[in-house]
Amino acid sequence: MSGSFKVKSIIGSRSKRGEISPEDYLMRSKNLIEELKSSTPISIHDFRELKIKYSNACRIYYTAAAISRRKILEEEVRKEFLSLLFTLRKNLEIAIFEDMIKVKNKSSLFKTASGKTFFGVSAKQGVSIRYPLMTCSPTKSCGGRCYAHDGRDRELNLVFRSLFNYYLAFQYQNGSASTREEIIQSLSKSFDYGIKSSKIEMSNAKQQGFIRKPRIRFSHIGDMVFTPDFTNRVAEEIKKRDEDITCVIYTRRKEISKINPTLFKINFTIDSDSDSNLKFATSKCKVVSSAWEGELSEQARVNFLEHHVEKVKKPVNKGIICPVTLNHSLYKSCDEANCDICFN
Ligand code: SF4
């Protein structure tokens, strides 16, 4: 990844599980939140130095997230971790971002931010754009359970990637017409890369016997509705280059009406049928549900059964279930499950 270090070279080797005390990391996490909240932004020469400055904080966040996903953990302790993970990550992101906008070497930051890793490409998520969790409007249930705290998305380089993407969006939202054009121009090669990658992915699916359109996910973590002008413009540029690409956005934000429904398939996410956010879903949205604790929604077009490394929740009530979340040991991707409910 452009601008990324090997995580190990910054934060050292991971601690062995036996060396990590959950209680110790609960305390460290709480202290870190207070420290981050009271930190004053400083001007650093280069964004690479920021990675070093925040390496220890990223490590504490990573370890807290990993502990919360352990198969064996006292339920009370798990609950405590789940209740602070979102606040920890959000404050970490805010502190990094406030320093990032003060970085002196802006050209190197801009070059890295607009590089091709603006788009993530992975077997599980396909082609997608990451955003920081500070752009989310979390519910009580989703903040700690969010899949951003699972696997690779909790690592330092990907926390930074989501902030680089947001850095561009922030400059675009607050910039003049010429700044906006400069940002879009700088992303030109990245748009080509994202489109090409999504078409390769589509061809691979076809070879496996599954016919579907190419697609790009807008914020599989974070919420791009937070920066609607930038988000609409990115989709517009992608569509201008290739109108076959389906742009899919996932959101919980009530400002969803600022997103141009002619550019997107919109997946409005709720927690359950009683989720009060449901009133913000417009007629242009497809309602999908997180099904935390396995609670299915009948109103949702599809339910993503809660699944983490340590376990999959058993479904409760009636509703359509996403096949990957139901059988994630069998299907690693939507294509393997021959499913594209979310994208059409
Ligand atoms: S419902 Fe289908 S398209 Fe949506 S995430 Fe699950 S497998 Fe993929």
Instruction: Give the helix proportion (percent range).
Output: 40-55%
Ranges where pLDDT stays below 50 over 5 or more residues in a row are none
Portion in strands:
5-15%
Summarize the helix and strand pattern as letters.
HHHHHHEEHHHHEHEEEEH
N-end to C-end Cα span: 31 Å
Provide the gyration radius in Å: 20 Å
SSE diagram, text form:
Layout: H1 7-11, H2 22-37, H3 47-53, H4 55-68, H5 75-100, H6 106-113, E1 120-122, E2 126-129, H7 142-145, H8 156-174, H9 177-186, H10 188-207, E3 215-218, H11 228-241, E4 246-251, E5 264-270, E6 285-289, E7 302-303, H12 323-326
Parallel strand pairs: 2-3, 3-4, 4-5, 5-6, 6-7
Antiparallel strand pairs: 1-2
Describe the protein in words.
This protein has 344 residues and is of the alpha/beta class. Helices cover 43% and strands 9% of the residues. It has a 7-stranded mixed β-sheet, covered by helices on one side. β1 (120-122) and β2 (126-129) form a beta hairpin. The longest helix has 26 residues, at 75-100. The model has no long low-confidence stretch (mean pLDDT 93). The site of iron/sulfur cluster has 11 residues, from α12.
